[in-house]
Amino acid sequence: MRTIKLKKREERRLQRGHPWVFSNEIEDLPRDAQPGELVDVTDNRGQFLGRGYLNPRSLIACRILTRQQEETDVPFFVSRIRRARELRERLGFGRSYRAVFSEGDGIPGLIVDKYEDVLAVQCSTAGIDRLTKTILAALDEVYAPSAIVLRNDSGSRELEGLALDVSVVKGSVAGPVRFEESGLKYRADLLEGQKTGFFFDQRENRQALAALVPGLRTLDCFCYVGAWALSAARFGASEVMGIDSSERAISLAQANAGLNGLAAKFVVADVFDELRRLEKDRQRFGCIILDPPAFVKSRAKVREALKGYKEINLRALRLLEPGGFLVTCSCSHHIDLDLFREMLIDASWSAGRPVRLLEERSQARDHPMLLAARETQYLKCLVLQAQ
């Protein structure tokens, strides 16, 4: 196995638990190294630090899989995946949840979502892509699923020089799958839906609506398949409206409302345009939820993304009744909590609506974060009250 050596005094972050090695930290990156190749990493004196996989084309040149000199074979991945499963079971996550969360579960580059007995798998890096057969065998041993869908169509694969593809590699998936999450029934499209078809990361944040929405007219922006909206309806909102630009998502949201016997109105529209129209029509809401897709894919686009976040937040604040609640989110990991809060201060000032911060939340516990790697904490969810 090839060994790569770090430059002098570049080992501390790795020793403290961070799983990434950047290209400018390596003393001599081999020109003939292949994307996804397994390597040992040492400090400048040759002391072993970890074993991971290399991608000379990426700024993140190496991602650490283990701090031991051990084989990364089927038993290795069975151990990691089983450990992740045991955590979810201990935390009471039922039968549907994020089963593997990349670095948070010690397998950087791998995402696995479990929908009852169907798995949706994303291999987002060259190293994990090369290990796909090994990982699928490990998943099969731990979960014995009826079907496995490979959702290898994320933009991060393009950055790694990988092809995009969606395929069913075990069993069959005929249309949207049915599953239950937090007492609500859903249908999700694992083949063509966003990400893997559903967003488990907001599970615990949606439960926070129980104390906010009773008796309030509630608006869910970027509603996708209706999880926030249906949670609001379940918790006693007087009226619920969801907006999304995708006709397919709205169709699933309406079907999900029917599955649960809940009343909610869903509208196909551009959220930016619809918020302006609602303001022009002098509409008012007691609670508004903003859970947009990531507005920024790279640091170079942060300023542009902040403008978009500010726009939707100031529009939402103008639509709130006095004392109304804004649940506002960002899943863009390039925008940290401090930046997000500063944007909200600007939006509040521009909207002429002072706000109080009631709560700061993050991703659900089936998306565990590495304490030494802030990058693994990507989701921000703030609960505000307008004056």
Task: Write structural notes for this entry.
This protein is α/β, with parallel strands linked by helices and 387 residues long. It has three domains: 2-66, PUA domain (Archaeosine Trna-guanine Transglycosylase, Chain: A, domain 4), CATH 2.30.130; 74-175, Transcription Regulator spoIIAA (2-Layer Sandwich); 199-386, Rossmann fold (3-Layer(aba) Sandwich), CATH 3.40.50. The protein contains eleven helices and 19 strands. It has helices spanning 12-15, 74-90, 126-130, 132-143, 155-159, 203-207, 227-234, 247-260, 271-280, 302-319, 337-351, and strands spanning 2-5, 20-22, 38-42, 48-54, 60-66, 97-101, 110-115, 118-123, 147-152, 165-170, 177-181, 184-188, 217-221, 239-244, 265-268, 285-290, 320-330, 355-361, 380-386. It has a seven-stranded mixed β-sheet, with helices on both faces. A five-stranded mixed β-sheet has the order 1-3-4-5-2. Strands 6-7-8-9-10 form a five-stranded mixed β-sheet. Strand 4 (48-54) and strand 5 (60-66) form a beta hairpin. Helix 2 crosses helix 4, helix 9 runs parallel beside helix 10 and helix 10 crosses helix 11 (337-351). The model has no long low-confidence stretch (mean pLDDT 95).
